[in-house]
Design goal:
- Two copies of one chain form a homodimer.
- Chain A is elongated, with a radius of gyration of 21 Å.
- Helices cover about 30% and strands about 15% of the residues of chain A.
- Chain A is α/β, with parallel strands linked by helices and about 300 residues long.
- Chain A has helices at about 10-20, 70-75, 90-110, 110-120, 140-155, 180-185, 205-210, 225-235, 275-290, and strands at about 1-5, 30, 40-45, 60-65, 85, 135-140, 155-160, 170-175, 185-190, 215-220, 240-245, 265.
Amino acid sequence: MSFIIIAPPVPTQKWKEELELIAPEIPLVIGTDTDNPDDIICAMVWKQKPGVLNRFKNLKLIFSMGAGVDHVLLDDSIPEHIPICRVVDPQMAFSMSNFVLMAVLNHHRSLYNYRKAQEKKHWAQFEFEERNLKIGVLGTGFLGMNVAKKLHALGFQVMGYSTSNKETPFPSYTGVEMDTFLSQINVLICLVPYTPKTEALLNYDLFKKLTQPTYLINVSRGSVQVERDILKALDEGILNGAFLDVFEQEPLSAESPLWQYSSVQITPHIASLTYPKESVRQVLECLNLVKKGLPLPNKVDRKKMY
Amino acid sequence: MSFIIIAPPVPTQKWKEELELIAPEIPLVIGTDTDNPDDIICAMVWKQKPGVLNRFKNLKLIFSMGAGVDHVLLDDSIPEHIPICRVVDPQMAFSMSNFVLMAVLNHHRSLYNYRKAQEKKHWAQFEFEERNLKIGVLGTGFLGMNVAKKLHALGFQVMGYSTSNKETPFPSYTGVEMDTFLSQINVLICLVPYTPKTEALLNYDLFKKLTQPTYLINVSRGSVQVERDILKALDEGILNGAFLDVFEQEPLSAESPLWQYSSVQITPHIASLTYPKESVRQVLECLNLVKKGLPLPNKVDRKKMY
């Protein structure tokens, strides 16, 4: 039995190192090239090309190397019987929550305005107040809930929206209550998975339903946002700024006007980093359960796409 | 009986509004000019000129309009028998902690590097890792403890130092253990009060005792830092950056080289904002206790200076 990693160089190298440390006895193939495709029982993938997994007739487990699985499911040739799992890692939640907190706090305390003042050597005392934030977390799954709970624990006013009912220490909305949720917030944190239902969700019509102006933070998937509409909403003052970590096309084209908006912060899809150590541990655990025919934690529902 | 506010215009206006709302029956004097100095029983002050309070022979309470009281105690003509109190406000802790968290998280996630990349329209994916922070809070009083506990709750490695022993869920140091504390941290958050003992505490000798390099966050008092030494430590790589909210001279002179250091963030002494509503409530409560001869909460120890 062998494992295979099909992913870009940066995660591949780190996962390889961890696997060699934890399970040195398991032969590991990097990339799709192998003379013994029938030996592969477990594939760790990130944006694999559709169809490449079909060579491995004895594949028992596919593991997404990130929290999102939309990239795996783009490949509709994967047989239904092979379980796809994703990493659900407290360290990843630490990473994501810190990133979102940073984005929220910089907005809360007008850091970008103070930056501009610093560039002019201007002592801008008493020029900016703390903003009174009403924070909405759209998508309170594993990562979104962690973000929402941390913001709530820090004393911020928080609301959540999820497709399923959630027990939360703050108001939570679900189903048809989306408009009610949107109307009450002035910071929108998007942490939904990418599915056909969430594609282009962050569009002009949605922005108009928010308290005006609202600050947008998207750390989910670029396909969830309509960048043309974000620009329009910024120009019209419907949005007063945005922190975007994901984009319709990645890397973001140098042609995009987003780069130059002073109220827009851009990071290159790094909000949540995966920690291979814990992920690799979960791969081995999952494979063990597969062999025993036991239920898998964090198995992806292919219909829901998360 | 009357109250008096002696402070710059910005806090004065807000405190005046709150006082008129909560205690409209109490005559209020703004500034030092009054025909009836003997009516004044309570003075709320921020950086009053030494000696100005001596006119008020019936003064029963002096209240500092901020968390620090060094500005009040500069005036050594204030009779010993008049109690000086300071505001201890959960809202102020909310404000201070958010500010410090912001400074820590921006450093943790290399936000300033991503800002520079954005200016060049450069997609800097995988170029910066999350920094492994060992955070030291120097001065775990009311505000410092709040900061330290929040960072600890978020999952960061935190250490505290205080002149007194503290029960904390993270390692705490006191007394002669300062060097041990300093040697273990790579983020130094300074929240000590300004006293003769803390004057120029943040100097080159202290920086050399830190893990190299360390990130410096000073949100206490400018007199606690030696800016010449901060510049030297930055130039030598002993410090890898600083977030400074306070300065030896405020406003910071346009001549200061600090403005232009790309690894230095400057804010104009706004880390912790006071919320007059709660402060004014505490003034009235204190005065009530003074009248009854009862012990005062948050009374300043003039020797300790906090």
